Every structure is written in C-alpha cells, then in structure tokens.
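Technical annex, item 7. During the second reporting period the consortium partners agreed on a shared format for inverse folding records so that results from different sites could be compared directly. Each record opens with the tokenized structure and is followed by the designed sequence. A conforming record, contributed by the partner at site C, is shown below for reference.
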C-alpha cells in the first residue's frame, strides 16, 4: 500500500537502502539517500533523505533524516529537518526535535517534543542560558542608570 509522504508517494522515492522484513541489522545505517526499514535495526539510522519505518519494523536507536514516517516501533530519539509523521500503528518512545509533527489517531509517542522552526540541529537554549541573558540585560540597565545619574550630577 502506498502512503503519502510530504506530498509524494513511496513509489516516487528512490530508496538508497532497504532493510527487508526478514533482516536484522546490528550497527548504524548511514545513507545520503532515502532509507526504508521493514526489519529490525539495533543502531542509529541517519539519512540525508527520507526515512520510512514500516509497520512491522523495530528500531532501537536514534533516527536522523529529512522527512520521517513511523509505522513501526522506535526506541530512541528522532531528529527531522522536515516532517515527522507517526501513523496509527507507529510507536515512538524517545525525544524528538522536528520542524513539524503529525501523529495519527492510534499512534503513540512518549517523550519530549521540541518543534524548532529556526534552529534545528543547534543546541537548544537552557535555563542557565536564559539566566545569563537576564544578567546581561540587568547589567546593561544598571550601566545606563549609572550614566544617567552621572550626567544629572554634572548638570
């Protein structure tokens, strides 16, 4: 059955790597093209193209790619520079950092979600970073107030 993937169908995607339903991979999968997993992978899957995880697939590791479709079971973090879609049979147990995210009714997601439209791939700001920025802003205000007070004294 063909499923839509960001305005295209699977039939129009040229897969560089296909891991069949009877395959079991122990190790990382890295590809410049699109990847389809229907078997089992223990390791990270990284692609400059799209990643499709079939309904019978299981991946224990992180996914990183452009558009990512999940119909199977993932235990690991996901980073998508495009659309992450979890279908009704999909189960994702891990954190995500994505540009956009869709989960169909029946799909399962357990983890933290960072929808980051500007800085995907860059480290997220922490509370400590916010405190540093607040401290810098307070210092600037104090300097301005001190300069204003000095100007009033000389006037």
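Designed sequence (site C submission):
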């Amino acid at each position: 059955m063909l499923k839509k993937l960001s305005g295209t169908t699977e039939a129009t995607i040229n897969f560089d790597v296909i891991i069949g339903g009877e395959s079991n991979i122990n190790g990382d999968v890295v590809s410049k093209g699109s990847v389809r997993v229907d078997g089992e992978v223990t390791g990270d899957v990284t692609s400059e193209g799209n990643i499709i995880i079939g309904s019978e697939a299981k991946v224990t590791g992180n996914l990183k790619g452009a558009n990512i479709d999940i119909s199977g079971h993932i235990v690991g973090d996901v980073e998508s520079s495009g659309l992450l879609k979890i279908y009704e049979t999909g189960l994702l147990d891990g954190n995500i950092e994505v540009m956009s995210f869709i989960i169909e009714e029946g799909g399962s997601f357990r983890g933290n979600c960072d929808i980051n439209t500007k800085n995907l791939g860059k480290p997220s700001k922490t509370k400590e970073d916010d405190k540093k920025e607040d401290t810098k802003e307070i210092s600037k205000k104090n300097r301005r107030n001190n300069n204003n007070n000095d100007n009033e004294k000389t006037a």
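The helical segments are 127-154. The longest strand covers residues 78-86. All partners now use this format for quarterly exchanges.
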